[in-house]
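The following record pairs a protein chain with its ligand, shikimate-3-phosphate.
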Amino acid sequence: MSSTGKRYRVQRSGPLRGSVRVPGDKSIGHRSLIFGALGRGRSHITGLSEGLDNRATAGAFRAMGVAIETGSEATEVHGVGLRGLRMPTTVLDCGNSGTTMRLLSGLLSGQGFGARLVGDESLTRRPMGRIIGPLRARGAHIAGTSGAKADELYPPISIAPLVEGESLRGIEYDMPVASAQVKSALLLSGLYANGVTAVQEPVLSRDHTERMMLALGVPLETAGSSVVLDPTAEWAGGWDPFEWHVPGDPSSATFPIVAAAMVADSQVSVEDVCVNPTRTGIFDWLRLIGANVAHRPSGHGAGDEPMAEITITHGSTRGAVAGGELIVRMIDEIPAVCALAAVANGVTEIRDAAELRVKESDRIATMAKVLDAFGVPCEELPDGLIITGGKPLRAAHIESRGDHRIVMASALLGFMAEGESIIEGAGAVDTSFPGFVSLMRSLGAPIEEEAS
Ligand code: S3P
């Protein structure tokens, strides 16, 4: 689904200045569509991203009989209730979106109809055993496809219906790796179970699903990194439609913010960014390495998500070690962290990030290649990277492997290199950040997009 037939031409940048808004948060967008589709009536969602990933989720619900009208101001989702989805007459195309595939697999495991979920070439290489295992353990009839690793399962995913009188069971699941997608797949399937869903994570991952369920009155309790959903508790078994605003995506805001941290004399603000603490690792990291980041609260969005205006003023930064829970709170921001590490003084060490190997690309291997092409000394570790910053960068020609965040991180490096850098596969940015080029240009960045 991700059109990659575009390339960027990037030059060394002068100061970046201005105030911008980024598209709505991708994770909150998926979930707003899901909870809107399962609500009893018409929900009104503003701020939803037009990115291809959120569109894939909307397309899947349309294929299951949910009317979704997308206007320039708002998206109206005509919810059909918890039990109102119809059997899709086509395969559900999740495009490049792992979140669509994993969350819908959980939701569809509890239905009385079957479905088949497919994805693009990149998604087809991503591991699905992590959801198929626990969903099967609670009685789902779900199968994946064998692939590169003998003990792993991949897309396409096929789900057979629960038969008359059959139900998913309760489950207590101790997750080996923190993952909001796995947790959310279990919670969504848990809405249809005849027992309790109890999930424990090693570290709390993004908690948008929990926040929304609580806002909608689903009988859920959270404590630290554990969550318990008991649909057999006193509960009417559904929720009313809602009016929600999707806050700006901190993972997208990271790119103009980190660009301003890299380019001398810059000052950039991004308005209405989601500052849910499970997502703000990048801002904590920026402060830790000496960047000037200010934060002004600006209200709340969908499911009680806090928002703020983030302002960054360029200053010198120094390398440091990133690991542990901070990595979970900035997992999608590591490509940008690597770009910044190239200009920070000294050594940046990224640890505990093996999950990066199973994102839209193997982001450890891909970033190591990108940094090397720009002339940045870098060592690849099984679970991270060691990057030595502060040396002049040379212009590079990058093959981004169709990974949106690799494309944007490469553009940041291009702003610091002497000469013109070319970044291939730039169409992938449309999965999460349509308008990236015009936003960066509005701040003064010398970046152009062309067909390849
Ligand atoms: C997401 C969870 C994260 C993140 C992804 C979006 C979500 O993945 O990397 O971009 O919306 O739940 P994992 O759950 O695999 O860590």
